[in-house]
Backbone:
C-alpha cells in the first residue's frame, strides 16, 4: 500500500484546495477590480418587511419547539423584520384561539404567522400552521394541521416554515435540509452533520480516523473520504449507522466527491500522476471516465442544470487555480480560486466561489452559471470560504473569521444580510435537502 504524508494528503483532500489558495496567493495581489462591485454596499440599511409570529404561552415542549424553530427560520432568511415578542398584543394564544388580526395590524406587519403544537390522543403530535398576508384580506393564505411522530416535530416545523414561505413569497423555503462538513477534532479531521438552523451538531465519522470532504447522496446516505493510519483516502458511505467502503478502481487517494441533482451521476477527484483528476460515472462508482485535463483538478460540484464545475490549474507553471465549468476556465485569471458551488436562485443559476485576496484571506464572489457578470459578496470581513447554497437558492452559508468571531454564517441572497449561525468552524461545507416526507405528512 502506498504511504503518503498525512499533512500533504489532508491539504489536498480537503477538496477545495483551501491551503493551496492561501499559500499560493501572489505576493503582489492581482487587480481586485476584476472581482466586480461589492453587492452589499448601500443596502444594509434597507427596511425589511415586518412579519408577526404569534408567541407561544403553552408550557408543552412540542409547542415551544415548533414556534421557536419557525421564528428562528424566519430570522435566518434575512428577508423579514420579525416583530419582538414583547410587543405582542394582549390576548389568548392557545392552539385553538383565533388570531386577532386587527390588534396585530396596528404593529405594521405585512404578514402574520401562527404555529402551534400539542399532544394528540393518538399518541402523535398535532402541529398547526396558519398565515395571513394582510394585503389580500383576512382569509389565510396558508392553513394546515398535521399529525406527526414526536421525533419528527422539529423537522416538521422546518417544513412548515418552507410551506409558509411558499405561501407568502411564491417560492417554498429550504430549511428542511441539512449541512455536512469536516472540522479538526484532536489530531484528526472528522465529519459532522447539522440541521439548517445550526441545531443538532453531530460527529458521524470515526474519531480515530482522518475523515474529510463529505457530500450528501440520495436518501439518508452520506459520503466522505477516510484515511486510517496514514493510508490513502478511500471513499466511504455512511448509512443506517454503518460505514461502508466503496470499491473504486483506484489505489491512490480520493480527494472529493459530488453527486448531480437527481443522484444519477457521481464525480470524484483522484490523486493521479503527481496531481489530481476528475472522473465522472455511475453513482455506485462504476463506469468512471476522466473528464479533466489540467494537472490539478479537484472539488467537483454539479449545477442544477447538469453542468460540472471544479477547481483546476497547473501549480508547476504559474501556481494559479481557477474555476472550470464543463472544461472551460470561468474565474478571473490571476486569482487563486477555491470551493465552487451553484445557487438555484429566483434570478437564475449563480456560481459562487472563494478567491484569495492576500494576507491569507479569501473573499466570496458570485457570477452567472458560466462566469459572466461577477460581483463580490464579501470584502474586508476576515476570511470567507467554503460556500454552500440552500436548496431554495435564497441563502448562502459559509465559514468566516470576521470580527474575530469564527463560525458558520448565513447570507440572504435576496437582502444581502449576514448572520452568524453557530461558532463551529470547518471546511468542505455542503448543504442539501432532506428526503421528501411521506405524502400524508407533507405540509
Residues:
Amino acid at each position: 500500500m502506498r504511504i503518503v504524508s498525512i499533512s500533504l494528503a489532508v491539504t489536498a483532500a480537503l477538496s477545495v484546495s483551501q491551503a493551496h489558495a492561501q499559500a499560493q496567493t501572489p505576493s503582489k495581489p492581482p487587480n481586485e477590480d476584476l472581482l466586480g462591485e461589492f453587492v452589499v454596499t448601500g443596502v444594509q440599511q434597507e427596511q425589511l418587511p415586518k412579519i408577526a409570529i404569534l408567541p407561544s404561552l403553552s408550557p408543552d415542549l412540542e409547542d415551544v419547539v415548533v414556534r421557536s424553530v419557525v421564528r428562528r427560520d424566519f430570522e435566518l432568511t434575512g428577508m423579514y423584520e420579525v416583530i419582538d415578542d414583547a410587543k405582542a398584543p394582549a390576548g389568548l394564544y392557545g392552539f385553538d384561539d383565533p388570531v386577532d388580526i386587527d390588534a396585530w395590524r396596528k404593529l405594521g406587519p405585512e404578514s402574520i404567522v401562527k404555529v402551534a403544537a400539542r399532544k394528540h390522543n393518538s399518541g402523535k403530535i398535532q402541529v398547526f400552521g396558519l398565515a395571513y398576508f394582510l394585503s389580500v384580506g383576512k382569509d389565510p393564505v396558508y392553513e394546515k394541521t398535521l399529525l406527526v411522530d414526536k421525533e419528527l416535530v422539529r423537522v416538521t416545523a422546518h417544513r412548515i416554515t418552507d410551506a409558509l414561505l411558499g405561501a407568502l413569497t411564491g417560492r417554498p423555503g429550504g430549511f428542511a435540509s441539512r449541512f455536512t462538513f469536516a472540522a479538526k477534532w484532536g489530531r484528526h479531521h472528522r465529519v459532522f452533520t447539522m440541521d439548517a438552523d445550526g441545531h443538532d451538531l453531530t460527529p458521524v465519522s470515526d474519531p480515530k480516523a482522518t475523515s474529510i470532504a463529505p457530500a450528501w447522496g440520495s436518501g439518508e446516505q452520506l459520503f466522505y473520504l477516510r484515511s486510517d493510519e496514514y493510508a490513502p483516502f478511500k471513499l466511504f458511505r455512511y448509512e443506517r449507522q454503518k460505514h461502508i467502503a466503496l470499491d473504486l478502481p483506484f489505489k491512490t487517494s480520493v480527494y472529493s466527491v459530488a453527486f448531480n441533482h437527481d443522484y444519477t451521476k457521481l464525480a470524484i477527484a483522484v490523486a493521479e500522476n503527481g496531481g489530481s483528476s476528475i472522473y465522472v460515472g455511475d453513482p455506485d462508482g462504476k463506469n468512471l471516465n476522466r473528464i479533466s485535463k489540467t494537472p490539478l483538478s479537484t472539488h467537483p460540484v454539479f449545477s442544477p442544470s447538469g453542468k460540472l464545475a471544479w477547481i483546476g490549474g497547473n501549480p508547476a507553471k504559474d501556481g494559479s487555480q481557477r474555476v472550470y465549468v464543463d472544461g472551460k476556465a470561468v474565474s478571473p485569471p490571476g486569482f487563486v480560486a477555491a470551493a465552487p458551488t451553484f445557487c438555484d436562485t429566483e434570478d437564475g443559476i449563480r456560481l459562487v466561489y472563494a478567491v484569495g485576496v492576500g494576507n491569507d484571506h479569501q473573499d466570496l464572489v458570485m457570477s452567472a452559471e458560466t462566469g459572466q457578470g461577477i460581483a463580490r459578496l464579501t470584502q474586508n470581513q476576515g476570511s470567507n470560504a467554503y460556500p454552500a447554497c440552500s436548496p431554495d437558492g435564497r441563502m448562502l452559508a459559509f465559514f468566516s473569521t470576521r470580527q474575530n468571531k469564527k463560525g458558520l454564517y448565513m447570507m440572504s441572497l435576496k437582502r444581502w444580510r449576514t448572520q452568524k449561525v453557530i461558532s463551529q468552524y470547518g471546511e468542505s461545507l455542503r448543504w442539501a435537502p432532506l428526503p421528501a416526507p411521506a405524502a400524508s405528512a407533507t405540509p
